[in-house]
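Reading a protein record of the kind used here takes only a little practice. The record below shows the convention in full:
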Amino acid sequence: MGRVRHELWLFCKAQLTAQLATLCDFAVSLLLAEVAGIYYVAASFFGALTGGVVNCAMNYRWVFDDTRELKKRRVARRYLTVWSGSIALNTLGTFALTELSGQHFILAKAVVAVLVALLWNYQLQRRWVYA
């Protein structure tokens, strides 16, 4: 039971940091698109970039804290690989869903972000980046 509890605790911490990173992502995206008038796809990309930096730092320091002995360069290289895929999935997914649905981009971005967070980010971070 201890192992299950540990995995559940890691998942909960990872989801908390993901939510905080998502808040940063969405804030930057909305500010760039709605206030600065930048095309929503570019705004979404820069938002995802900001969220990724926040997420990596928080995961390294707090979520996967048993990985302190891992070299930062190794973690950074692996995170960059996963993050690149995440940014591509989020940006392209937001564009595709926005264009197909005709809804405001932030709704599409929210749907895509949840799917990418659960099916891509957490899985690869837990099993490869911080392993």
Q: What stands out?
A: The mean pLDDT is 91.
